[in-house]
Amino acid sequence: MAGFNAGLNFARSYYVATAAPAPARPALEGLVKADLVVVGAGCTGLAAALYAAKAGRSVVVLEAGRVGWGASGRNGGQMIPGLRKGAVELVKMLGVERARALFDLSIEARNLVVGLVKDHGIDCDLSLTGHLLGALKPRDMAAFEAEVRCLNEVMAYPHAHVLNAADALAAVATPEFCGALVDDLGGHMHPLNYTLGLARLAESQGVRICEMSRAVTLDRHAGGVRVGVEDGAAVEASHAVLAGDALLTGLSSRVNRRIMPVANYIVATEPLPDPQSLISAGRAVSDSRFVVDYFRMTRDGRLLFGGGERYTPDPPADIGAFVRPYLERAFPQLRGVRFDHAWGGMVSVTFSRLPHMGRDGPVLFAHGYSGQGVLLSTLGGKLMADALDGDAAPLEQFAQVEPAAFPGGDVLRWPLYVLGMLWYAMRDRL
Ligand SMILES: Cc1cc2nc3c(=O)[nH]c(=O)nc-3n(C[C@H](O)[C@H](O)[C@H](O)COP(=O)(O)OP(=O)(O)OC[C@H]3O[C@@H](n4cnc5c(N)ncnc54)[C@H](O)[C@@H]3O)c2cc1C
Predict the structure, then answer these.
(1) Does position 429 have pLDDT exceeding 80, yes or no?
(2) Distance between CA 157 and CA 129 in Å, rounded?
(3) CA distances (Å), 192 to each of 70, 77, 113, 213, in order?
(4) For ligand 1, atom 11, which residue shows the shortest CA distance?
(5) Residue 20: beta bridge partners?
(6) 419 falls in which pLDDT band (50, 70, 90)?
């Protein structure tokens, strides 16, 4: 696949090696009319398509590559309830009422995904074992305690609790954590198989998905929109959904300037003899660094570990060698372990770490989940479909907190952002 995703070795990822069979879908040809055209077949686009079709709309999805080959099919699979901005910060920023509304929506995202998997029997290794956020410094524990208090008392969310150092060590065999925050409603799954399941569901509702169909033009006219693909074929529709996330270029400067694509890398080890000795309760785990390490076990006993970001679009020559020091820092007992898979993907980050969702006339958009899109992307898609169906209030809750555009326009935002992120990464190290 061309563009940002090129060279990230996805074809040799653990997910592709263990993917459910997926048919190749023919590219768009000629001029097609529909009620809704969706750009992007990740979870955002597929959920928008699914729910719009359920409401009776004819829907065409245009996908530049293959279904699920964006972030949706290649991520860490960590299901982390909430938003990337914690409850305490959210309340400080927005006040109790609006913070609570956004937080409730994020929990709806979790229940939506779990409900889809269970109701439709999507085979995606769903593991509702919880999410553990490890504290690296004593001051993180003070913040975790305040966070749990806020979750319990302000958000009326009783599912999070703190672990002391001994319990954290019993939960995760790393010397790094001095405590942890556990959310019992978290977990993990096989994200590519979930995405492929969502595509099948959407198709069962009559959605047409066109692969190898990159949208290159978006024109508005009195009756709606016309989205053209590279070879001249096009879809005319009343509405368009932009769901290209970190991989979207062109089409809408307002949308593109609000996210920054950041490359992130994952390895899957060989199957380990005693997986439970690393993560006893099988939770999804991440840590309190700004540049997060995250890991979990797979169904077949591998450690799937993500760590290290690069702020330039060129991938490291050897992704495994790039991730290894981060993995061995967390688990010195795995020094020299064999990696069977190593790949990368592009995460979209917003200035505020809140997703960017909203509407601009006939064009709706949802993206920028800032590393927490496994749950939020399905919700983002559904909220856009709901808005088309007259229930615009939930999408509007997010639209009201539109993240600032990155300064520098489409070209200069890169170097400015790199400087900012490097500063944060330095803070982790100090
Ligand atoms: C390496 C990595 C690890 C991550 N780990 C986690 C995690 O553990 N937990 C978590 O919650 N989140 C995680 N995330 C984030 C999460 O994966 C994303 O937020 C989420 O998948 C975004 O879904 P999406 O559907 O919006 O975008 P995508 O899945 O990226 O889908 C966008 C699609 O649009 C297509 N597209 C783009 N432009 C065009 C165009 N012009 N025409 C047609 N198609 C186009 C792309 O090809 C792509 O298939 C991770 C992301 C990465 C990359």
Answers:
(1) no
(2) 17
(3) 9, 9, 14, 20
(4) 372
(5) none
(6) low
The residue ranges of every structural domain in the chain are 3-75+192-258+352-407
**Are 310 and 256 within 8 A, CB to CB?**
no
How far does residue 107's CA lie from ligand 1's centre (Å)?
20
Phi, psi (deg, nearest 5) at residue 53: -65, -40
Summarised one tens digit per residue, pLDDT across range 82-124 is: 999 999 999 999 999 999 999 999 999 999 999 999 999 999 9
Percent share of the chain, pLDDT over 90 = 80
Region 339-354 average pLDDT = 92
Q: Are 376 and 355 in contact (CB under 8 A)?
A: yes
CB 324 within 8 A of CB 268: no
CA distance 284 to 294: 8
Interhelix angle 43-54/191-204, rounded to 10 degrees, is 20
Q: Between 6 and 384, whose confidence is greater?
A: 384
Nearest CA to ligand 1 atom 31: 42
Work out the average pLDDT over 351-374: 95
Global confidence as pTM:
0.95
Neighbours of 364 (CB within 10 A): 27
Task: Check residue 243 and give its pLDDT.
Answer: 98
Cα separation, 119 vs 198, in Å, equals 12
Topology given in CATH for the domain delimited by 3-75+192-258+352-407: FAD/NAD(P)-binding domain (3.50.50)
Which has more pLDDT, 174 or 308? 174
Measured in angstroms, how far is the CA atom of residue 249 from the centroid of ligand 1? 14
Ligand 1 atom closest to Cα of 369?
19
The whole-chain average pLDDT of the chain stands at: 93
**Which residue ranges have their beta carbon within 6 Å of ligand 1?**
39-45, 62-65, 69-72, 74-78, 80, 214-215, 243-248, 264, 266, 294, 306, 345-347, 367, 369, 371-375, 377
Instruction: Report the C-alpha dihedral over residues 284, 287, 292, 296, rounded to 10 degrees.
Output: -20
Testing ligand 1's pocket by substitution, the residue of 188, 245, 376, 384 carrying the most ligand atoms inside 8 A of its CB is 245
User: Ligand 1, atom 35: nearest CA belongs to which residue?
Assistant: 40
